[in-house]
Specification:
The chain is mostly helical. Helices cover 58% and strands 0% of the residues. The protein is built from four helices and no strands. Helix 1 crosses helix 4. The radius of gyration is 12 Å and the shape is globular.
Length: 84
């Protein structure tokens, strides 16, 4: 299962929606009817699932499924990069 698939499955579970609704360009507030509490829960779930830390600023910018995926990918890449 790819990272994208894991994220989409996690979003569907956390927001209690059909996986078919979780398209890359789906907006959390408008398309998936997520409120602020839902986004906080989703952020915590992403942190737990992928072992990353998402800041409040990053959480506010995470408005679509694609943005969530890119954010997780950035954190995972930064952790995998060798220290300078």
């Amino acid at each position: 299962m790819t990272t994208e698939d894991r994220i989409r499955d996690l979003i569907a579970k956390e927001l209690s929606c059909s996986p078919d609704q979780v398209k890359l360009d789906a907006r959390f507030d408008e398309d998936l009817q997520a409120d602020a509490i839902d986004i906080i829960g989703l952020t915590l779930a992403l942190e737990d699932e992928f072992g990353v830390v998402i800041t409040d600023d990053e959480m506010e910018r995470m408005t679509t499924v694609r943005a969530a995926g890119l954010l997780v990918d950035q954190h995972l890449a930064a952790e995998a990069a060798p220290a300078a």
